[in-house]
Design a protein that fits this description.
This protein has about 100 residues and is an alpha+beta fold. The protein has one domain: Alpha-Beta Plaits (2-Layer Sandwich), CATH 3.30.70. The chain is about 40% helix and about 30% strand. The termini are close together.
Length: about 100
């Protein structure tokens, strides 16, 4: 199993709007690609002292690297562009890829 992790930094004043958009629009769009088995959203509870805002980790689980690569190559560019159009630099995203060992 492969976990595609996207950690987003959002200003606290737009957290509710962003969460609603994620739950009602973006996550359904990503899951509709058929590339992932499940998605989880988690709020980071530990933050740097100078960190103002909220950090949310979104973890998409893929059955295989091929499924993730299909998403990355076929679907991600348009979905990421849509997010940039809506939020610009107000949401910073850091992406990482993990392999489930156990």
């Amino acid at each position: 199993m492969i976990v595609y992790n996207v950690t987003c930094h959002i200003s606290a004043d737009m957290e509710a709007e962003w969460l609603a958009w994620m739950l009602n629009e973006h996550l359904p769009d990503v899951m509709a690609t058929g590339c992932f088995l499940e998605v989880k959203m988690m709020r980071l509870l530990t933050q740097a002292d100078d960190d103002e805002g909220v950090n949310i980790a979104v973890q998409y689980t893929a059955q295989s690297m091929a499924d993730y690569e299909h998403y990355r190559d076929t679907h991600a560019p348009a979905l990421q562009a849509k997010t940039r159009e809506k939020y610009g630099e107000r949401v910073l995203a850091y992406r990482s890829l993990l392999e489930v060992l156990h």
